[in-house]
Amino acid sequence: MSPQDYIQRFYAGIGQWETNLLLERHTHLARSATRASQHTVYAQAALELSHLQYIAVENASDETVLIVENIDLTWIAALGGCFDVEPAFFVEHAAAISGTCPEKAIIGQWSADRKKPVHTLSSIESWHIDGVTELGYGRLASTRDVLEHNNVLPRLAAFDQRRGWRVATRVSCCFLQPKLCLILVDAPICPAHDIPLLRPELRLPVGLNRGGLKVPCLYDDNCPSLFQALHQFFAHPWHFHILFAPRFTAEAHISPETFFHLLASSTWAANLRILDQNISRLAFDEIQRPNLRTTDDLHRQRKDLTTLLSEVNFLLKWLSPDVKSELTALKDTLPASKYIGYPDVILQDILENGNNLEKFLMDTFTLLLSTISVVDAEATKEQGRRTQMLTKLAFVYVPLSFVTGVFGMNVKEINGSQLSIWVSVVVLCVTGVSTLVLFMGYDWLQSRKSQSR
């Protein structure tokens, strides 16, 4: 099937109105907005369109995950043509959420039961999960010009006066081959202007709590996105073991609920490592010569660490037992040498290490106060040294100024005066000795005061 025919079948699936809107956005947005990466157990690399045919021919001899952010029509045609994916998969990913509020349409309509895959394409399993990205723009204007959403596929967005912006998003997964998985995510939402951006939070309708599972973003990401979170997630080889583990039930692969719980716990663990690196840098390097920025950075790290511990506690409290049951069943199908991590164990380790890091951070604040005292003492000492230099300069300048003032002349006029030169010399010596006695007396009084303390 040619790319043109494939796109026509895709258009037929999404409808005329969605087609017109998609074509309009595809025209105005640059294709470079699409990002893609290829992940294996051994390496991670950027993915180009020209590599798809090679991957299809190789038939994915190694366990491989392809992640595409902000997919456009060109990528849809290329992926569908190379791997014979039914257009229905991309049609479902492009489907827009109806309604006026993403939160009500997605989280409000969700039941506590695990969401099953939307459809199955022949022997290839796929699923789609809708979520809500919370931006927290409550203090800013409700106009859309504060947001910059370069997603080619249109998504529902709404503004709440109390809680800020809520934007719908969709994550889709399809197993193209037994050892090849495709994951589609939406583009991140960034501020259109130079305005403060709170870290966005993604909530998905999986788990036990009413608000859904909260998937964090990476703390060191300049423009936080699910793409970067998945990038670090697949940096761990054991995640491939779980994703491609052989199954003997009707569900051929891992469920969305278990996948996103693993992603959330892995991202929180990565954020703790980021905080540990930042706090260690501040404690061992920056704190040696502290300034106002050092204090601000420490308070910022403390806020992030407190938020992390609170969110991890909440996630551990509402962790679904189905996640551990499914991972236990998966472990039985793998060799004993294959490691599998359980979210509850990972989260407990995060809490333990996070509490230790919090103690270290508070000790760093104490050390910061001590360092500031030492720096202030050094500054006071330096100020005293400079004052002493001024005093020495005054010792020379004051007598000379006094003598020239008494005789009403400048230094160059001394030789031309009717008075004897010795008169000026004697007066200068007497004044200099008197000034020296006064300075020495002052130093003696200061030393007595310091000894009495």
TrEMBL record:
Q: What coarse category fits the chief subcellular location reported for this protein?
A: membrane
Which UniProt keyword terms apply here? Membrane, Transmembrane, Transmembrane helix
Location of this chain's protein in the cell? Membrane
Specify the domain of life of the species encoding this protein: Eukaryota
Q: Which InterPro entries match?
A: CorA_TM1_TM2 (IPR045863), MgTranspt_CorA/ZnTranspt_ZntB (IPR002523)
The record's Gene Ontology cellular component field reads: membrane
Q: Provide the transmembrane region boundaries.
A: 389-409, 421-445
Q: How does it sit in the membrane?
A: Multi-pass membrane protein
A Gene Ontology molecular function term for this protein is:
metal ion transmembrane transporter activity
Gene3D superfamilies, per the entry = Magnesium transport protein CorA, transmembrane region
Q: Which protein is depicted?
A: Uncharacterized protein
